[in-house]
Every structure is written in C-alpha cells, then in structure tokens.
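The authors assume throughout that readers already know how a fold can be written as discrete tokens. What matters is that the chain and its backbone geometry are given together, residue for residue. A single example would do more here than another paragraph of explanation. For illustration, here is how one protein appears when written out as sequence plus structure tokens.
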Amino acid sequence: MMLTKKSGARREGRITRHDLLEEIGLATRGDESGSPGSSPASTRLDGLWGVEYVVAYMTDHLVTDYLLETHDLTKQFAGFVAVNGVSLRVRKGEIHALIGPNGAGKTTCFNLITKFLQPSSGSIVYAGRDITRQSAGSVARMGLVRSFQISAVFPHLTALENVRLALQQPTGLTFSFWKPTRVLDRLHGRARELLEAVGLSQYADTIASEMPYGRKRALEIATTLALEPELMLLDEPMAGMGHEDIARVSDLIRKVSENRTVLMVEHNLEVVATLSDTITVLQRGQILAEGAYEQVSNDPAVREAYMGTGGD
C-alpha cells in the first residue's frame, strides 16, 4: 500500500502523521495541522501504544522487498491487447527474467515500465512511488534505466567519449558541449573506471563503430552504469552474439548485478537458467507462470507455449 496524499511533504518524500492517519482512515478535517489532540483519532497516536501502532502499520504496509511492482498493467493498440492485466513484482537485488514466445508482450511490458508507452490501465510502482504517469526521462533520473535490443551507443565517438557523455547527465553537464574540454576532463577518471569494470580499458580510444558487436554491448552497459541505476532493464542483451560474447556479457551482467537489481528480456534459455533468480513467463500478454528456472521449465503449460511441447 502507498500513501496517496499529494501534500508538499509527500512530494518531497516525507510522510507526515496526517498522511498516515489519512491512509488508515483515522484522519478528520480537524487533524490537517497534525497537532496533538486535534481529533480523538490523533490522540490515539500520542502515547506509546500509538507509536507501536504506527511502527506496526509501516512495517506491514510501507516496507517491501520489491523494488518494482506492476498492478493489472494493460496496453491496447486499436483493440489489440498486447499486455493484459500483468501484475509483476521484482525483488530488490535479484536478476529477474521476462521470457516467452514471440509476440508474448515482453518488449511492450518493458516500454510501459520505462515509460516509452503509457498504459491503457493499471499502475506501476517503483521504489515505493507510483510512476504510472511519469515520463521516460523522469524515471531514468530516479534510477530506472534500460538498454535496447540493438546497441544504442554513438557510433562516431570513442568508447571513452560515450561513457563520458552518459556521465554528464547526473552531474548537470548534459548540455555543456560548447564548454572547454577541461570542464569535462574531470569525468575521465570515472569513465575509465566504468570501462575497466566492463572489460573495455583497451578500447577506451576506439571509435564505437569499429568495436566488435559484443564489445559494443558491453559499452552500452557501461553507459547505463554511468547513470547510476538502481534497476537496470536489459532488453535481449545477448541478441546477435556468438558463444564467446555471450559468455563474456553473461559474466558482466552477473558482476554488475551484485549491488543492483536487473530485469531482463532474454530468449537464450541457457543464459536465463544461469543468471536468473526469478523468471516470469508471458503468453499472449498475460503471465503464464513464475518462479525459479527449475519450476517454470517443468511446467507443462510453459513447455507447450514456449517450447512447443507439453509432454516429455
């Protein structure tokens, strides 16, 4: 449950006593000021019992292990329902995979979560905040950052310049292209750290278009990390890769997930089995199954929908 009061305190992320009273149905008009004794309900929160009540309520309703939740998320296109009532929960610190056959609605879900599309109905909650009507830029600044099915780096810039450009956003230097290069030089150290973290130190001065495809995907992950994401959404990170690149990028995803949460769409079931803590299977825009790989891979409905067979 989320507090819904749209006060200045709520917008700044603080929860006032009146917010709490209002949410649990104890507030009265006389309690708007939050002053002690302004209503019988408020008085109940003045003593030790009231403190225990608040702590118990907040523990039960405001503290959650889930960083991202969608509730009955639905998207229609001219009568076609691409996503139909999807309620997804992504636990903090996990790698959560979204799989399913072509046309299952995986990328549409990603576009809804990252706000490239607005839902027809339903809601999206990230880090305890309702982001259903937020913009893509807003949620990215909140720490929810995605990659795309194709490499999305600037092809005519070097690897170092690509990462430095990504670093400019959180520092407020996004539109500082016309300033002397020395203004941006202070970002070089962090940019080189990120390149080293993804195994690209030797490619720092290489033009992105001249890098092997797998290395470009690693560069894209580096630019994503530059935005300091709490939740990384990876859309088919292994698409178009050979076995050597798949192994390298799999290791990289495992490494970068050590202190953040990852939600990924991926068709390579070997990668999914190796990396994922939880798997959600979509079919025709709805959740078909969810759980660990061993659980969903042995589900007859999943075998029928995803692998083409319901039996052994």
Notes: Residues 133 and 142 are 14 Å apart (CA to CA).
